[in-house]
Amino acid sequence: MSQTNDKIHDKIKEKLEKEKWFNYYKITTSVRDGVVILEGNIKDLWQKVRAEILIKAVTGVKKVINKLNIIEGKLSEEKLNYYAKAYLSKLECLFGFIGVLALFVCLIIAALLTPNYNPLFNTVSSLGRGIAKTIFSIGFVTAGSLGIPFVLYLEKTLKGVNEFIRRFASTLAVIASLCIALVGILPDPEFPDLFITFHTTVALTAFLGSVTYICLYSYLMLKSGIFKLSNVVLGFFTLLELLLLGITGFNPLIEWILTLNIISWSGITSFKLLKIKTTIDKYL
């Protein structure tokens, strides 16, 4: 094997050896130009699926040829129920992507339509008071609404990693998603002070809640081994950006960077969930 293939092989071995069941079976892995071939005997189908998902998360892996032979020949009822509940539909995988894509497009359109708007000096929220406030509203309401089923779907894929953190992160995720949707409520000119108080509260909760649940989910994703490290690092960067936002007194540019990072993390995670779902569908 070349040096690159050797590095991929070592990463795969290191990841699989962390699985409790792996050392009970004689499994061989070979790598050539990023293509991994898995061979050997295992007890159950869920182990075959788990091994393939883990390997696909290794940087540099282009394809997995799964030749693992199942000794028992079928998936146990317990594991079958687990996968059936954990991975419901591809549509749920795409909810997060559709939501953040709508938000991204609406923000860009709103910024372009707003006269003299400059992200270096104008905040994201100021778009909700400009000429394109309806477009701004549509983006946030869509992202927040579709964000709820997306985070609940993500929660199921991380089942069993750390139940307390997972449930706490999911609670925060639902609250943050609701607040993101509420950010899209248009101002009422008859109650300007009340609206400012309301908008400030939901916007801060959306930011704080989103960063917190993204970091907690990123930790769980790292522990699960089925997500790429780049996805995890992107999630942790939101915390750094939030700290910079506070230090700079809500600098508009930092706010934009944080907003776009949250959008990027959600979109990339959605596509990863779709790939995981596609892998499982081959065997169920």
Short description:
It is built from nine helices and three strands. The protein is mainly alpha-helical. Helix 4 runs antiparallel to helix 5, helix 6 runs antiparallel to helix 7 and helix 7 packs antiparallel against helix 8.
Count, helices: 9
Largest sheet: 3 strands, mixed
- Low-confidence region ranges: none
| Outline type | elongated
Structural class: mainly alpha
Strand content: 5-15%
Strand order of the largest sheet: 1-2-3
Number of domains: 2
| Helical content (DSSP H or I, runs of 4+) | 55-70%
Strand segment tally: 3
Order of helices and strands: HEEHEHHHHHHH
Distance between the termini: 34 Å
Average pLDDT, all residues: 86
Topology summary:
Elements: H1 3-16, E1 27-32, E2 35-42, H2 45-56, E3 63-70, H3 77-86, H4 90-113, H5 133-157, H6 163-183, H7 192-224, H8 229-247, H9 252-281
Helix pairs in contact: 4-5, 4-9, 5-6, 6-7, 7-8, 8-9
Key terms for this structure?
2 domains; Histidine-containing Protein, Chain: A; mainly alpha; 284 residues; 3-stranded mixed sheet; 3 strands; 8% strand; 9 helices
